[in-house]
Design goal:
Blueprint lengths: L8 E5 L4 H12 L3 E6 L2 H11 L2 E4 L5 H11 L4 E4 L14 H28 L5 E5 L12 H21 L5 E7 L5 H6 L3 H8 L10 H12 L10 E4 L7
Parallel strand pairs: 1-2, 1-4, 2-3, 4-5, 5-6, 6-7
Helix pairs in contact: 1-8, 3-4, 4-5
Length: 243
């Protein structure tokens, strides 16, 4: 299936590293003009050099700055809410600050960014598509990730409400729920067989995801090939949640 995004402009948040960086590369290769948003200016400079994408620097934890950044990005046709953080802490040790910042970036930022984009789409009667990057951790508890699991569960619920309320305007909204993904950080975090072995044993396909696996699924959900898919939280987990 050859997915093309010629003459389409896509906003991707959390684009500086890992999955977001691969999403930018995949969409650019498919003909899209990408606006990459990240809090790291250095990452965006390198990404622009590699892909030619437009860039916007912003820490999405600040709601007002997030709105202003999306306004600076200008009109777009598609949106990928990929920005996310994880602050590993046991439930009993979870701090107010870690919880609040995780929810601000992983949930509130997705809401704020999508509000700005969707209002513009409705004003110009544009039937856009949004993909929110969630996690299998919204369905399966992960030790030392109370804030992260809670945020991804909230993002799934937000996705369904967005699909319900924006659907009458022709706007589709879906979430992706990846398993462990071998970005550079993921490879370091899961390099110990004592840690990775039990998780791999729960994945019927017997491997962790690659960033390209996630980016390809994002491209599909953004495309016209997924024209009747909305309100879905799609696992990209090699069968983890089926076990």
């Amino acid at each position: 299936m050859n997915l093309r995004f010629d003459d389409q402009r896509v906003l991707v948040t959390g684009a500086g590293k890992g999955i977001g960086r691969q999403i930018v590369a995949t969409l650019t290769e498919a003909g899209a003009t990408v606006v990459a948003l990240s809090r790291s200016a250095g990452d965006l400079v390198r990404l622009h050099e590699e892909t030619g994408c437009d860039t916007v620097v912003c820490d999405l934890a600040d709601a007002a700055k997030a709105r202003a950044a999306v306004e600076r990005a200008g009109l777009v046709d598609l949106l990928v809410n990929n920005a996310g953080i994880s602050v590993p802490q046991a439930f009993l040790d979870t701090t107010d600050d870690a919880f609040d910042r995780t929810m601000a970036v992983n949930v509130r930022a997705a809401l704020v960014v999508a509000q700005v984009v969707a209002r513009a789409w409705i004003a110009r009667r544009h039937p856009g598509a949004i993909v929110n990057l969630s996690s299998q951790a919204s369905h399966a508890a992960l030790t030392d990730h109370a804030s992260y699991c809670a945020s991804k569960g909230a993002l799934d619920a937000l996705t369904r409400v967005m699909a319900l309320e924006l659907g009458p305007h022709g706007i589709r909204v879906n979430a992706l729920n990846p398993t462990v993904t071998l970005t550079l950080m993921g490879e370091m975090a899961w390099s110990d067989p004592a840690k990775s072995g039990p998780m791999l044993a729960k994945i019927p396909l017997g491997r962790f995801a690659r960033p390209a696996d996630i980016a390809d699924a994002v491209a599909y959900l953004l495309s016209a090939r997924a024209a009747m898919i909305s309100g879905v939280c799609l696992p990209v987990d090699g069968g983890f949640l089926a076990t």
